[in-house]
Amino acid sequence: MKKIFASLSFLIAVTLGFPGIAQISIAPTSVFVDNNGIASFYVTNPSDEPQEINIGFVFGYPGNDDQGNLLMVYGDSLREKEFGIGDRLRAFPRSFVLAPQQQQTVRLQLRPDRSLPDGTYFTRLKVTSNAQSREVGEIAQNEVATQVNFKFDQVIPVFYKHGETKTGIEISEIETDITGNNLRAVADFRTTGNSPFIGSVTAMLKNKDEKIVAEVQQTTALYFSGKKGMELSLPEGLTSGEYQVELRFETKRSDIASNNLVQTSPIAKRVYVRIP
């Protein structure tokens, strides 16, 4: 009697912008450690298969390229030494099997370091999931079987606010470019304070009467100085002429409680643009 068994394993990184791809769900999508060094989050398995879950940590943060596009930065050892939570953070449990249609609470515990300067420290929480593997013995005799095992990584931020925290940005200039019916505005900014600027940014196109003719808003997380790009879709039939583009940054988000965000006054800057 002969049995042939092959196993293929694939690792897929899943951003929370595409929750339909993931095998599990995580809530909340940003975790804030309290003053006692304690936090928790929930892992839910909505599938019909048991899921193997592993919790890990990796230092990283969102950044931007020279065109203001979002990119993730990993391997920055200098900033990890200055702002990272490091190995002081632990997860309980760290590995477990989650039955179908069940939820598990995972608790985080941070060992405090009172010698740190005031500010916000951070890392990223990586939750790896894959369907529980079948035992080789479950394969029938004379059966050629290939087991494809997909592993999904979901990564969310973890923050710890220590002492007096403050944040802000200063916008030096805004560059604009029009391609077809799209207007792109890129702000050159410098972060201030001792904490990331986490909130939202709104781009508005205003006519000479201060009426908003196009608007878009998105969440943002600005950890370090750089460029932030926004795109506006120009409405059909927009009259040619001079308009103003305004970018407005605020420390508010619908998915994060206001008391978790380091607050500052809204920051806005305008530039003139000519619509052909």
From TrEMBL:
<feature type="signal peptide">
    <location>
        <begin position="1"/>
        <end position="22"/>
    </location>
</feature>
<protein>
    <recommendedName>
        <fullName>P pilus assembly protein, chaperone PapD</fullName>
    </recommendedName>
</protein>
<keyword id="KW-0732">Signal</keyword>
<dbReference type="InterPro" id="IPR008962">
    <property type="entry name" value="PapD-like_sf"/>
</dbReference>
<dbReference type="InterPro" id="IPR013783">
    <property type="entry name" value="Ig-like_fold"/>
</dbReference>
